[in-house]
Amino acid sequence: MSQLQGKTVWLTGASSGIGLALAEALAAKGAKLILSARSEATLKDLAARLPGEHQVLPIDLMQPEAAYEQAQALVAQQPIDILINNAGVSQRSLTLETNFQVYRNLMEINYFSVVALTKAVLPNMVKRGDGHIVTVSSVAGKVGTKLRSGYAGSKFGVIGFMDCLRAEMADKNVRCTTICPGFVHTQIAHNALSADGSKLNQSDPDNAGGISAEQCAKEIVAAIEKNKAEVVVGSGVSKLAPLLQRFFPGLVRNMVAKR
Ligand SMILES: NC(=O)c1ccc[n+]([C@@H]2O[C@H](COP(=O)([O-])OP(=O)(O)OC[C@H]3O[C@@H](n4cnc5c(N)ncnc54)[C@H](OP(=O)(O)O)[C@@H]3O)[C@@H](O)[C@H]2O)c1
Q1: For residue range 6-18, what is the model confidence (pLDDT) as tens digits?
Q2: Strand ranges for the chain from DSSP E
Q3: Which of 117, 120, 128, 159 has the maximal Cβ count within 10 Å?
Q4: Mean pLDDT value across residues 52-76
Q5: Does the C-beta of 183 come closer than 6 Å to ligand 1?
């Protein structure tokens, strides 16, 4: 029997891409899901077709304070075994051209909403002496490249948050896993913010050439089951980049400047 059998898993970003594939993989393992994103109809369809009993909780993670209150209300009703902070928005715009508000928006969803939801579920996990916080950062949280200065800032930020949390939770049996995907074939580029904050609405050959969302989800589930502290998921150069950055930082600086 899978160790995920019967666990209550709150999954954000469940309406698309990696989150959708994660919902399918976790439901197949017998987890009881609370599916969150803004697209309520998509989540309801998903909950209805997945094996098992699942709930839908529409949430807007661009509003972390309101999300925190929603999360507290949820935890008051039922304990969460595993929180997966997966929802996120990317960026495709140069720093010189990007509105300051775009930086704020990227931090709201990719950083502050992670802090908000984690802070809401954590006290109950500590009280029970059991829980698992999983946050999907990115290889962009390890290596900065052009056109992603706001996205990388938010994704570097959550890695730091998770590192601190892991240290604080080490003696409390609350496990902390950070996932850093490289390129994955999803709608991430279409949904990425451009300089004025509008959606890019274009595909990106790097993401289109990446691993499938299903493969990514499979590796994330394995990382959860093995209680990994941090895993890089992907293939090719995007998977190698964090390792190259650590041992050959000058080489990586040259590579990203020319790309
Ligand atoms: N794809 C990649 O190459 C890649 C690489 C590294 C890291 N990642 C990370 O992986 C995670 C999932 O991305 P993906 O590739 O699956 O992208 P995606 O297909 O664009 O899915 C993004 C998910 O986030 C949700 N979301 C967006 N804005 C939201 C908001 N304001 N409130 C609540 N939910 C919101 C979306 O749901 P609604 O629109 O229904 O709200 C959707 O379910 C993100 O954190 C991303 O940064 C992706």
Answers
A1: 999 999 999 999 9
A2: 8-12, 32-37, 55-58, 82-85, 131-136, 174-181, 184-185, 211-212, 230-233
A3: 117
A4: 98
A5: yes
First to last CA, the chain: 46
Query: How many A from CA of 131 to the centre of ligand 1?
Result: 23
Residue nearest to atom 42 of ligand 1 (CA): 13
Are 16 and 37 spatial neighbours (Cβ–Cβ below 8 Å)? yes
Share of the chain above pLDDT 70, in %: 100
How many angstroms separate the CA atoms of 48 and 213, rounded?
21
Tokens of 154: 């938010």
Please state, in angstroms and rounded to a whole number, the distance separating the CA atoms of residues 202 and 186: 12
Which position among 68, 103, 111, 151 bears the catalytic label?
151
Token code pair at residue 233:
């998921």
Annotated catalytic residue 151: yes
CA angle, 233 then 152 then 224, to 5°: 30
In a 3-state reduction of DSSP, which class is residue 8? strand
Cα of 158 vs centre of ligand 1, distance in Å, is 15
Q: Ligand 1 pocket, 63 CB below 6 A?
A: no
Partners of residue 91 on adjacent β-strands: 193
Q: How far apart are CA 259 and CA 257, in angstroms?
A: 6
Query: Which structural domains are found in the chain, ordered by start?
Result: 8-258 (3.40.50.720)
**C-alpha 40 – ligand 1 centre gap (Å):** 15
